[in-house]
Every structure is written in C-alpha cells, then in structure tokens.
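Changelog note: in this version the structure field was regenerated for every chain. One regenerated record is shown below for reference.
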Amino acid sequence: MTPNQKIAKILGITEKTLENFEFSLRESTGKTGIIENLCKENEKIIEETIIKLNTGDDRSADHTRGTLQKIIFQHEKQFLEFLNTVEGKNEFEKAANLSKTLVNVGKGFFLKKDFIKQIFLKRKSENLLGYLGYQTVEEIFANEDLLEAFSALRFVENNEWMHKTFEEVYSSFTEVDFEERAIEIKVLNTKWHDIAKKFVEKKHHNVSHLKEFGVIFLNPITMDVPGKFLRDFALLLHYFHEIEFYSKLFKKYSAEENFAEKFKSLLRGDVKETMDIKEKNTWLIVQRYLIKENSQDPRLFQPRVNPESIHWAKGEKDLVGISEKTGGKVDLSLWWNLDWVGGLFQGVNGEEVVSFDLEDNAMSLVSFMEGKKEVLTYHQREAMWTKIFAEYAGGEDKLEQMVLDNFDKGYISL
C-alpha cells in the first residue's frame, strides 16, 4: 500500500479524498511530502513500540491489541501500588492530591461562585430537591456544599435541562461576573453515591467537570474493573488542560458585545456545519467526539483539528511524568507520543486499524472486561488529524494558538 492509502484507511476516508486534500494544501502552503513523512514516522514508532512490547512473531490485530491492553493492566497495578503512598483518606483523595503535583496550569477566568445560588433560584431542580428530600432551594443553601450540589446536576438533569438553563440564566452573564482563580478539584461526598453511580454507568467514568466554574469533580465510586482507574486518572489530568483552554476563550471573548452567546456555545460544544464554510483549504475545529453521536456525520470525513487531542496530549505527558516522580517504580514512558499512532494489522476479516493511544486501549480493555468487546480508535484518529494539521501549520507550538485565534469562526484556513 502507498502512504496515502495507509493513512486514508487509518483516518477512515477514501484515498481520493486524501489526495485532493493534499493537492489543495500543497498549492496553498507550498509544503510537500507531509503525508509520506508522517506515514514513515508512524510506522517507525509502531515498530519501536512492538519491539518494546516483545509481542513475538504474531503481528495480528487481536494479538497486538491484547498486548497493549495487557501492558495497561500491568501499568495500572504499578500505579495503584504507588498511589497507596500518596496522602489522602481514600484512593480518590489520593488521586486528586497526586494530580495537582503532576500538572502545570495557571489561574483561570471563571464565573464567580456566588452565581451558583442565582442559577439554583432561577432554575429550580425538582430532581435534585427530590433526591435530597428538600422542598426549597434555600434548604440546599443552608445544608449543602454548593459546588457539590451544582456538580450533582450532571447526575439528575439531562442535556436539554442544562441547555435551557444556559438560555434562561447564562445569557445575562458579562465580564464583571468572572474572576481569576485556580482550578479546583473536589472529591464528592458519599451522599451523592446513588445518583453518581447512574452517571458512572452511563458515562463509563467517574470524573467530570464544570468548565464555567473551573472545577473538576470525582465521584467516590470504586469500579473494580482492570484499566478503569488508570484511564480515569488520565482523564482527570486531561481535564486540567481542557478547563485552562476554555478559560482562555472565556477571557478572550469577555469584552465582546456577544460574549454571552459565545460563552453558551462553548459550554454546549457547538461545531460548525460544513455547508456553512465557503473558503477553501479549511480545517474544522471540532470540540467534541462526533463519532460517538453519529458515525456517518459528514464532518468526520473532513480535515479537522480537535482541541480534545491537544488536551489529551498534555494530559498524557503529565501522566508519563509520574515515572520521574516515582524514581522509575511506575514507568509509563511507553505511552508518550503514541496518542496519534495507529497501524493496519491483519484481522479475521481483513486489515483492521489498531490504535496505540493509551485512552483507546484502556477503554477497549474496560469494554472487554465488561463483556462488550468494543474496539475503540477514535482518540487516535482525531489525534492523527491534529498531527497532520500541525505539520502543515508549522509545528505544534503554533497549533493551540491557531485554534484559540479561530475558535469563534469554527474553522482554520491554511
């Protein structure tokens, strides 16, 4: 297979689509050989990783995935043994404390916490009141940690309820309603266990966040499934960078007249429709994983850059940093720079894409242990698109700034 054929198959597009895309970008940027060089780098990293894994002569898709997942199981065991030495009452507090020593993020630009009361008053959550056994929101104010109670809305209310809240309450927020403060991480009280368990069963992870308030929260629910804890800890690190990224956008748009509309759009995760873009050589900015909603979404077959890939790359770099902190007792260096790497391996019914990304493999391991046997590759695919964009744009150093500068347009022109 040619480099174009290989990369096109890994990206899930036709070779013709990739050739047209490459020809168009060659004309606008003057850069040639990007896909060919990326293919060589990809295969070189795969070969080096397979040698490290000592997979033997079996190069089948199932065996390669199985070996990657076995390593995750081993790495999680090392990680949990080290976590026992970290200060904290339980594994969740320990994880929260450890995460703060691994990440390096600055203060953010977030809604003042006083507005939590205003939101509760304007949008009374009957589901939350019912769970707590209260009649009025004033009882929440008197008896509950408001950040925890607000976090619990994620468990008891659906997206439709939240989007209506954005329209009715968030439309009035202005620059003066924000302040600079550090990102906060909270381990929720066990009183939320029952409803948080339903959230975990639906989302398959026990960590989430409130971008607008700069808060990451952990649900105190133990999930005794191999791969889950390491996967969720990586997600926790990722959220620090995601929140910092959106905070920069909150600050950037705060002085604009239509700030509230842009603010709500960021929280909803809006993505521009391809039909709305008239310019050539454009890359969509896709701020969520569209494939989880519709595998045939036409935007999945277009050049794109996903900020999630940027956050994951930073989070996985933080995770790898634990090796130095533990003196090599927990060595996760294998996973560095594998987020975008994927290869074609022989499967039962022909060639299959094998992702070398940590999150894809951890989630696939969890799926296997739960009897679902779902093979995931979408983190790797988004990261590979982002990697290609960085090559054409002039390097990873320019990547995030270009996304921030063009975020409100929904696309970047090269």
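Spot check on this record: The first helix runs from residue 3 to 11. The CA atoms of residues 302 and 311 lie 21 Å apart.
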